[in-house]
Structure formats: C-alpha cells, structure tokens
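residues and backbone:
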Amino acid sequence: MIMHCKNLAISDGTYPDPYVKTYLLPDPQRLTKRKTKVARKTINPTYNQMLIYELTLEDVRNRQLLCGVWDCGKLRENHQLGRVMIDLSAIQAAEQTVTQWYPLKVGNSTPSLS
C-alpha cells in the first residue's frame, strides 16, 4: 500500500501534482508497472492506495520494488521528484506488511515515501 509522501521538492515555484509509479524489478517488459492517483498541488500527498501484484511469495522474494514519485505535468513532460528501491528478499509471508518511511533519492533534498 502506498500511503503518504512528505516534503516533496518544489521545482519551479509551484506545488507539484505528485503520483507514485512502481515496478517489481527485474521487469524487462514493464509488465509490473502500477500507478497511484494524482494528488493535486501538494508536497505532502496522501494516497492510501493498494497496488496489487499477483505473484508467488518466492517470486516476490527475488525482486525489488522500485517506487518513483513523479510530478504530473499538464503542459510539460512529467518529471521525477525522487525514487527509492525496496529489497523484498526478507518478506516472510504473503500477508506481511512493512510500514515505514523510505527516503527518496533526489538532488540535494531528501523527501520521504511511506
């Protein structure tokens, strides 16, 4: 479940319209791409959105979850605000949840994803 982001960067003096895009890697054909809804004009969006993958537990343990936070551009190209790679090898059960903040990798600031 993608819950929240906080302290996202303001790139051009306006608040972003952020959304989260995920992939389970490796994924050469991008079949595991999922997206949240777009949150309008905020640096602290709340999604509380479940992104579902139907894979075996063994397959999940052999992957990493790439989460990218993007600004949805209306008159310009979407651009990435930050990203984080989450190792899934320690998942013990299909129902296991991990709730924590993950710092995004981006420029000089460090926004977070939960």
Summary: The first helix runs from residue 57 to 61.
